Amino acid sequence: MKKVIIANWKMNLGFRDSMKLATELAKQVPEIELGSKEVIICPSASSLLLVAEILKEHLFGLGVQDIFWEDQGAFTGGESPKFIYEAGCRYAIIGHSERRQYLAETDEMVHQKTKAALAAGVTPILCVGETFEERSRNLTDNVLMSQAIKALSGIDLLPNEQLVVAYEPVWVIGSGRSLDPSEAQHAFRIIYQALLDLFPLHVVNNNIRIIYGGSVDGVNASEFVGLEHFGGFLIGGASLRVEEFISIIKQTK
Ligand code: PEP
């Protein structure tokens, strides 16, 4: 599987700034990088179609930052997996810690969304990670296993379906401080083991990528690239800075 680099623009850019950033990316990210890796842009919903239009001649993928678990109906404000697929999105971030924290998303909701994404042909980017408090109480391994198992139990991956699991230590996201790569390595192994409890080995190795997210920048990215099970990055803040984002893409091997 190709390495994947996912840009999470969060709620940082209005449509003008989104257009500007997408235009810069289209101009500046070398095609060769886009051919050998997957680079997925997740703008805010209000800018999605504009960004899709700008990137359509290029090899970027498109994702949303959240979806709902039903395809259609009276669910005010929800983003339908089916409709976002029609809009050209092939990825959806699910269970980001900011949504778990501010919108009280539960593991059950994350599970439903993951299932719905797959059913619509959208690859889930499932976010798991411990808070600082959980880490201080030595609960990191339990949290990672529990979040992965609750999100994925009962889900089968067909040969043409993929899943991305993003390890995002909540206390590192947006903090500007970087995680010791040995800690990311440990988390990758825990997640890999949890996945092996849920899926056959060939599915874990061929259909699932484990990626890292949390204050990754042009300086620290290289520290994670060689880790066992490393499948790519989820990038927040640094994805808004074109040169830094390109530097991360180039370092991802
Ligand atoms: C994120 O929010 O998914 C993230 C990784 O953010 P940052 O890179 O800014 O820590």
Written description of the protein model:
This protein has an eight-stranded parallel β-barrel, surrounded by six helices. It has helices at about 15-30, 30-35, 50-55, 80-85, 95-100, 105-120, 130-135, 140-150, 180-200, 200-205, 220-225, 240-250, and strands spanning about 5-10, 40, 60-65, 90-95, 125-130, 165, 210-215, 230-235. The chain is built from twelve helices and eight strands. The chain has a single domain, classed as TIM Barrel (Alpha-Beta Barrel). It is about 45% helix and about 15% strand. By secondary structure, it is an alpha/beta fold. The protein is globular. It binds phosphoenolpyruvate. The site of phosphoenolpyruvate has 13 residues, from strand 8.
The molecules bound to the chains, other than polymers, are: phosphoenolpyruvate
- Cα Rg: 17 Å
Q: Calculate the mean pLDDT score and round it.
A: 96
**Helix content range:** 40-55%
CATH first level: which class?
Alpha Beta
Q: Which blocks of ≥5 consecutive residues have pLDDT under 50?
A: none
CATH topology: TIM Barrel
Tell how many strands the DSSP assignment holds: 8
What is the molecular shape?
Answer: globular
Per DSSP, the total helix count is: 12
Instruction: Report strand %.
Output: 15-25%
Give, in spatial order, the strands making up the sheet with the most strands: 1-2-3-4-5-6-7-8
Under the CATH scheme, the architecture is Alpha-Beta Barrel
What is the assigned CATH homologous superfamily?
Answer: Aldolase class I
> What order do the helices and strands follow?
EHHEHEHEHHEHHEHHEHEH
